[in-house]
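[#protein-structures] MJ: dropping PA0069 family radical SAM protein here for a structure pass
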Amino acid sequence: MEKDSILKGRGAQQNTPNKFLQHMYEMREDFLEFCRLEGEEAESNKTQYIPIFPKTIVNKVDSPDVGMMYSMNPYQGCEHGCIYCYARNTHEYWGYSAGLDFERKILVKESAPHLLEAKIKHKNWVAQTIVLSGNTDCYQPAEQKFGITRKCLEVFLKYRHPVGIITKNALVLRDLDILKELNTHQLIAVNISVTSLSENTRRILEPRTVSIQKRLDTIRMLSENKIPVNAMLAPMIPGINSHELLQLAKAVSEHGALSFGLTVVRLNGAIGQLFSDWVKKALPDKADKILHQIQECHGGSLNDSRFGVRSKGEGKIAEQIHEMARLARRRYFEGRTFPKLNMELHQRYKDGQLKLF
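AK: finished. structure tokens for PA0069 family radical SAM protein:
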């Protein structure tokens, strides 16, 4: 790895142009050289937290490729910096870049708990699982400062409403008290993302995430407290982590996961440019091979937008990945089932208290 060429602590190595904006911002080489000679930073690498004030917080998910009907995101942008993250493109809707802006400009929705409460108290709302982190991680570093996710979980508990969580951060254990109480009513399911067993891979692929061991320990701790855990072994990236699938499945199974899911990486929108730039800097000797193998999974392109196919991939490499997944389920998850969440309690708690009459 050419360490000198890598921007430390970040996944993206550039800001790609925003397709919705007429003008683009570009740093000239002479300015960068001037900053280098003067010992100055051309721009700050610090994270900014920017408050925003949405009118709604719960989103209906129309994609048939995603196993959820509703999601909510307390934060837009994510400091974890995972280079492959499909959510990067959504930052362009806010006028920012899908690249470094996505990791350094975190939009904070402090009104999320109040908006959530108004949504699930509405007379026409019928309980369906709402997933925290359908887009960006609800337990990213910003949560330590703002605590919005915990406040949302308190709302779910108050109204006995089913909730799912997707995260790759051990910070979820901070809220174990609420999770345990939700689980007594069968109202919680947690999805922990584990993409590699190699810390070297984790550091360059997901630079500001917790270690793999902490994620496995999180699965174990949740499982020991009877909270159902599904492991997200996603995305599988040929040439980077796809060869680890069996070992990953074995590890999450041994730590108590009841099931696992996976996707084959696709690099849609600005992510194709960001990933290509990153892989040539982070893994220069393997970059061309990795990009070609990803293309083999999507008919010669880095992306496939067809529902039902785009997350699975096609061709021999994708088939091998899915065959390994079938083998892993037979070998490590035989007889395990993931429970359905309780949709029946919420109607009786809509007014904030159990109706007696």
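MJ: nice. The chain has one domain: 3-15+47-349.
AK: one more thing. The chain has a mean pLDDT of 92.
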